[in-house]
Design a protein that fits this description.
With about 550 residues, the protein is mainly α. It is built from 21 helices and no strands. It has helices at about 5-15, 30-45, 55-60, 65-90, 95-115, 120-145, 150-180, 190-205, 220-235, 245-265, 275-280, 280-310, 315-320, 325-345, 345-365, 375-400, 410-450, 455-465, 465-475, 480-515, 520-535.
Length: about 550
């Protein structure tokens, strides 16, 4: 899509400003383009590392756990920070936070591109995620503040669909770069986009729209950061040998931070996360549903890229091209999802999307084997893309529709958490299962072989597919046997990951089916919330004073 066509499309999607039932800002199409470009910087950075993981693993001789952390680092930084930084944007200026986050994306991308160790690369990825945490939450917050009525639904659909498609295009663009340049080039992809987004956002995005004057709960923000960070890291370290104590400590920290966060939010004069609002069914069910939907997309791309290159032998470019069906499906389906939400309600649209995500994981589980033809790969990605395109809009729309305007930062932060926490959790779970499954199968293959293997070689064989490939190069007489065993071990590990995805989708569908209100009930609840949130607080009762004497 050309830039001119994108602007025209955005203008068509955006409502007219003079329609009292369907409010929109001046130059709505350009404003929406600016917000989507800013979001695109974050969305592209989420996925550019996936296709480069095999190259990064070979360059640094990284373990599978380290590769997992490189892949999940950006999501981790985002998920840690979106609630706190979104609230700071609500208080001190959304546009300022948006511009600062987009600006900081540039040095962190440069650090990632020229990282001298894989540990530095992990730090750069987390830092980039923190920078995105400044910019990304404000994009949806501004859409919610600037648009109303069906125009808001359409704008969110375009923001959600194009955002997911850009994330899916990341591996394609990365693969193209890796055909000609070194692994770090993939992290330079977002630099020109960040510069353009910075200029367009500075020029067209309005400043100071429905911003809060209340103090930010900074203690709650710190607790939320510790909670999410400890949770994600504990999942990643769970399958690593000799890291049991660290995993337990991180899990205890996460639980303690959760309890303290809830305690703080119940007592803070201006809580970071309004638990009464969060308890509304259209809010909490949509949040859970979105975590699974967007997490499924990121998890499928994370495992799928390694499957395509390690098992099927795709080049980096071919592996990136393989994801195009997911990107195309999201772009095509997302605008239609908005119409389905208006006609059938969020609950129906969410469940409809879940069906396709489930079919995608079943395709991967049953058909993704060694030596398969491409149509089976494309089918799996297309089904997941259709599901995310359908479910992404209602998941985000329900959040923003069920909160008061003063809490729009909380809604946008939660919508971002759907993507970032969902991506971080699902990639971490998939990565942990892939690591555990691969290590188990590789160790069994070593034990069953008649060849004497030293402990150091066995550790290298079982730590990752790239480790096995490194050993294969050292022992060319056994290269074919080692590579075949590594592929078999990888396939066992990714089966565990796809099964976890199926279980997550089924659990999410159960939650949506039983707890998300049907269309008419949802409309009634949203109307009730609107009235309750806009009513002025009742005047306090003033005790009657002593009777006054009657004038003569």
């Amino acid at each position: 899509m050309t830039v001119r066509g994108f602007v025209v499309c955005s203008r068509q999607m955006a409502p007219a400003a003079d329609d009292p039932q369907d409010g929109a800002p001046d130059r709505a199409g350009l404003v929406l383009v600016a917000l989507i470009l800013v979001a695109a910087v974050a969305n592209l950075n989420l996925s550019v590392a996936n296709v480069a993981l095999p190259s990064i693993g070979q360059h640094f001789d990284s373990s599978q756990t380290t590769l997992d952390l490189i892949a999940v680092g950006y999501s981790l930084g985002l998920a840690c920070s979106v609630l706190w930084l979104g609230a700071l944007g609500d208080r001190y200026g959304r546009k300022s936070m948006l511009l600062l986050g987009t600006l900081l994306a540039i040095p962190f991308s440069l650090l990632a591109a020229y990282a001298w160790t894989d540990s530095v690369l992990i730090v750069a990825r987390i830092g980039g995620g923190l920078a995105a945490g400044m910019a990304y939450p404000t994009t949806l917050a501004l859409i919610t503040a600037l648009w109303s009525g069906p125009g808001r639904t359409k704008s969110i659909a375009l923001w959600s669909g194009l955002g997911g498609a850009i994330a899916a295009l990341g591996p394609l663009l990365s693969g193209l770069l890796l055909e000609h340049f070194y692994w770090g080039s993939v992290f330079l992809l977002t630099l020109p986009l960040a510069v353009v987004a910075l200029v367009v956002a500075w020029r067209f995005v309005p400043a100071h729209v429905n911003e809060s004057t209340e103090q930010v709960d900074n203690l709650g923000g710190i607790l939320s950061l510790v909670l999410v960070g400890a949770l994600i890291l504990s999942i990643n370290f769970a399958p690593v040998p000799n890291k049991g104590t660290l995993t337990i400590v991180l899990a205890i920290v996460a639980v303690a931070a959760l309890l303290l966060f809830v305690w703080r939010q119940r007592r803070a004069p201006n809580p970071l996360y309004d638990l009464e609002v969060a308890a509304r069914p259209p809010f909490w069910v949509a949040a859970c549903a979105g975590i699974i939907v967007f997490g499924s997309l990121m998890g499928a791309m994370f495992v799928g890229q390694q499957f395509l290159q390690n098992v099927l032998g795709y080049s980096t470019l071919d592996a990136g091209l393989a994801i195009l069906p997911a990107a195309a499906a999201m772009v095509i389906v997302a605008p239609r999802s908005a119409k389905i939400v208006e006609a059938r309600g969020a609950r129906f649209t969410l469940l409809f999307g879940y069906v396709f995500v489930l079919l995608g994981f079943l395709t991967m589980l049953l058909l993704w084997k060694e030596g398969i033809s491409y149509w089976k790969v494309g089918l799996g990605y297309a089904l997941v893309g259709i599901g995310v395109g359908l479910a992404g809009t209602p998941a985000s729309h329900s959040l923003t529709s069920s909160v008061p305007v003063r809490r729009v930062g909380m809604a946008s932060g939660t919508a971002d958490l759907q993507r970032d926490l969902g991506g971080a959790i699902m990639q971490s779970i998939f990565g942990a299962l892939l690591t555990a499954g691969y290590a188990t199968a590789a160790a069994a293959a070593v034990s069953a072989s008649d060849t004497h293997v030293t402990q150091s070689v066995q550790n290298q064989l079982t730590k990752s597919f790239d480790g096995a490939e490194s050993i294969a190069q050292q022992y060319p007489q056994h290269a074919a046997e080692i590579t075949a065993a590594a592929k078999t071990a990888f396939l066992q590990g990714d089966q565990w990951a796809y099964l976890a995805g199926i279980v997550a989708v089924l659990l999410g569908a159960v939650v949506v089916f039983f707890w998300f209100p049907k269309m008419e009930r949802e409309k009634t609840l949203l109307a009730e919330y609107h009235v309750a949130d806009t009513e002025p607080p009742a005047a306090p009762d003033v005790p009657a004073g002593p009777p006054q004497p009657t004038p003569a």
